[in-house]
Specification:
The chain has about 700 residues and is α+β, with helices and mostly antiparallel strands. About 25% of the residues lie in helices and about 25% in strands. The protein starts with a strand and ends in a 17-residue tail after the last helix.
């Protein structure tokens, strides 16, 4: 992989024979777990400006209709997260000469607060071609990481590394994006103007999702929309979803168009269909009648029948719902085009033909992208020999990828299967993995939050989601803590587990898979990405980081994780204490400034009126810990939260405890289900109600609420 210094450039053709489509990754890390940024892409013509606002791609305009640009969103990495962008260079309009890749901070943060700012570029197979690290970031709130540009019909890349102290507004102005003025005539018009805008800059002003969010905002927890009741998070509750609405915009909380947008006559998004808020009244005579399903789930006689059925159901919906098929394959280098899917295809391989579970073929502009699919259900592991055979077949027949699909969750630095690639082969084949939990997450995001093209597609995705969640489908996601789980728990109980035990590392990896699945499920409910927070030292590799966590498990008997909803600063901590058999979920809530301590304590107790009586509340003070107690005891006496010596309060730690259950096995009915239930209960009964307490904060400066209007 080529490492470029700032200002250097290189032709893509010199790096790979296949650069018609590339994946750009922007990444950063923070030892505190804080810090986030929004990526954006600008297409510039010969004048160095965008042709129109449609050439500006960001979180509320994430993809081009022709598939040339698609923001794929964040994926967790060992040190933080990486935002990935798919660029089909063969589909970029000929009048476009430069493609800028940028990112912007919000909420008063700057890029100097982050570590390891880096851009990487890979070909469609996922092979890294070049990298560029930014080491001189300080007060900048927007950065151009790099640009791709045409020279003599060839695409080249330049490492730019140019920062803007004026944020996204300053960057956008330079390239032809109009700055919207608020009612008072200023471009930096304060929070009201930002909250009314469906633009990236509006995010700086404490956004709430548009009307139709399944969690009606009662407040905001660091930017997370909250709900007034726990019903939407109950596993048995029916889906609660927005009604037909425009594509959701993050900051807008009313159905009205922003004042600036009305004055300027900006375009509105095409109508998309989502599930209605409430289900239609049933015509059944009684509740025992079951509605007819498009994908019935009978009692299967074998795992093979489950695999065949699940593969056929998934691939057929991918082909019929373009938004869904594109969502699942864009990250694998597939172009946007006509997709066809096939099952039980026989392919020659030596003396015995092989039958992969499925084949995906995507055609665009006469070019074909193809992938083999290998599926496992019901917790069955992928087999290295089987996947190796498909990799060899794909290489000989010119397939671009092999996609594995199972209940397991892939981890960076820990492959699910070991395969060998023949470096002498000119044709490269990439190996990718999807978990059933991720498939369900993407379907949930589309039908409940983002919307798809028509009502029939919504229905197809709803039927798919019902199938995946059925107990007989075998597509339930990660549900086995592995063979080392019971021995490690027993070793912790009888204090025979010592540091360096490889079984502890296995448990740490299973714990990490479980947390990533929890993030997928929670993110699907909220309509925003939830990502695990990795607090690793700079330069640490996955193996050494997991070894350190395993040693901590042996010493303390605890598994610890943190997660954050994308675009917020609130961190939800999860601790599984294997010695006590309890799971603790908690958040730290900063104390609002400018209020009397007793008033703050009373308001906190009042906001938590619907929270469980066994909620633990601990006062955080400068340099240590303060008073603590259960909510049941504190409700009649909020003053008990005040430090006796008058020390200033910095915030509160809210915690709930739940037993792990008596099951010692590795199945979902034991530990895994306990973690899911603990997160559900804590979020729905505590986090969803705490937003109004956090809302009273000092207003941000005008420079952090600049409005960039893109229509």
């Amino acid at each position: 992989m080529h490492e470029l210094p700032k200002g250097a450039n290189i032709g893509l053709a010199s790096l790979s024979e296949d650069t018609g489509a590339v994946i750009v990754g922007l990444s950063w890390s923070s030892t505190t777990g804080d810090g986030d940024a929004d990526v954006s892409v600008l297409l510039l013509d010969s004048s160095g400006k965008v042709r129109s606002e449609a050439d500006f791609y960001f979180y509320n305009h994430p993809a081009a209709e022709d598939g040339s640009v698609q923001l794929l969103g964040k994926v967790p990495t060992e040190d933080g997260s990486e935002d990935r962008i798919s660029l089909d260079l063969t589909a970029i309009p000929t009048e476009i000469e430069r493609i800028l890749v940028a990112a912007s901070q919000y909420g008063g943060s700057s890029f100097g607060d982050l570590n390891d700012l880096r851009l990487s570029l890979a070909d469609r197979s996922g092979e890294a071609l070049l990298g560029f690290s930014i080491t001189d970031a300080t007060v900048e709130t927007a950065f151009i990481f790099g640009e791709l540009y045409r020279r003599n019909d060839e695409w080249k890349f330049r490492a730019v590394g140019q920062g803007y102290e004026t944020g996204l507004s300053g960057l956008a102005t330079d390239f032809g994006i109009d700055i919207a003025e608020d009612e008072e005539g200023g471009a930096n018009g304060g929070e009201a103007g930002s909250e009314a805008s469906g633009t990236p800059a509006g995010r700086a002003a404490g956004e709430e999702r548009s009307g139709g969010d399944p969690f009606p905002p009662q407040g905001v927890v660091g930017g997370i929309p909250t709900q007034p009741t726990a019903s939407a998070h109950s596993p048995s509750a029916p889906p609660v979803s927005p009604g037909p609405a425009e594509t959701p915009t993050r900051p807008e909380s009313s159905g009205e168009q922003p004042a600036a947008a009305r004055r300027r006559g900006t375009r509105t998004a095409k109508k998309k269909v989502t599930l209605p808020r409430t289900a239609k009244k049933s015509l059944a005579e009684n509740e025992s009648w079951k509605p007819a399903r498009l994908f019935p789930v009978p009692s299967y006689k074998s795992d093979r029948e489950r695999e065949v059925r699940a593969t056929s159901v998934l691939l057929s919906v991918m082909a019929e719902v373009p938004e869904f098929g594109r969502r699942l394959t864009a990250g694998f280098g597939a172009p946007a085009g006509r997709m066809q899917t096939f099952t039980e295809v026989s392919l020659p391989h030596g003396d015995t033909p092989k039958r992969p579970d499925g084949v995906i073929r995507v055609e665009r502009a006469g070019k074909l992208w193809t992938a083999l699919v290998e599926t496992k259900t019901n917790g069955n592991p992928l087999k290295s020999e089987q996947v190796q055979n498909y990799m060899d077949i794909a290489a000989r027949r010119g397939y671009e990828a092999v996609i594995t699909l199972s209940n397991d969750v892939a981890l960076e630095g820990t492959p699910l299967v070991e395969v060998k690639t023949d470096g002498r082969r000119k044709h490269k084949v990439s190996l990718w993995h999807l978990s059933w939990a991720e498939v369900a997450h993407q379907a949930q995001m589309l039908i409940r939050h983002e919307g798809v093209g028509n009502a029939a597609h919504v229905w197809l995705l709803q039927e798919l989601l019902h199938y995946l969640q059925h107990e007989n489908s075998g597509c339930h996601g990660f549900q086995n803590m592995g063979a080392s789980w019971v021995p490690v728990r027993n070793g912790i109980d009888d204090e025979t587990l010592g540091q360096g035990d490889p079984r502890a590392v296995d448990v740490v990896e299973s714990w990490e898979r479980l947390i990533r699945q929890v993030c997928l499920r929670l993110g699907g409910e909220l309509g925003q990405k939830a990502l695990p927070v990795q607090r690793a030292q700079r330069g640490s590799d996955p193996k050494s980081r997991r070894a350190a966590l395993a040693d901590r498990l042996c010493e303390e008997g605890k598994l610890i994780a943190e997660l954050r909803i994308d675009g917020t600063q609130t961190v939800l901590a999860i601790t599984a204490d294997l010695r006590t058999g309890k799971i603790r979920t908690s958040i730290d809530v900063p104390a609002p400034g400018g209020g009397y301590p007793l008033s703050v304590a009373k308001r906190l107790v009042r906001v938590l009126d619907a929270a469980p009586a066994d909620l633990h509340v601990e006062t955080l003070v400068e340099g240590g810990k303060g008073p603590r107690g259960t909510l049941e005891r504190l409700r009649p006496e909020p003053a008990d939260l005040l430090p006796k010596d008058g020390t200033a309060m910095t915030g509160f730690r809210l915690s709930l405890f739940k037993g792990m259950g008596n099951t010692r096995g590795a199945a979902e009915s034991g530990f895994i289900r306990s973690v899911d239930d603990a997160v559900d209960r804590f979020y729905s009964s505590v986090v969803a109600h705490i937003g109004s307490f956090e809302q009273r904060r000092p207003s941000r400066s005008k420079t952090s609420s600049e409005v960039v209007e893109v229509g």
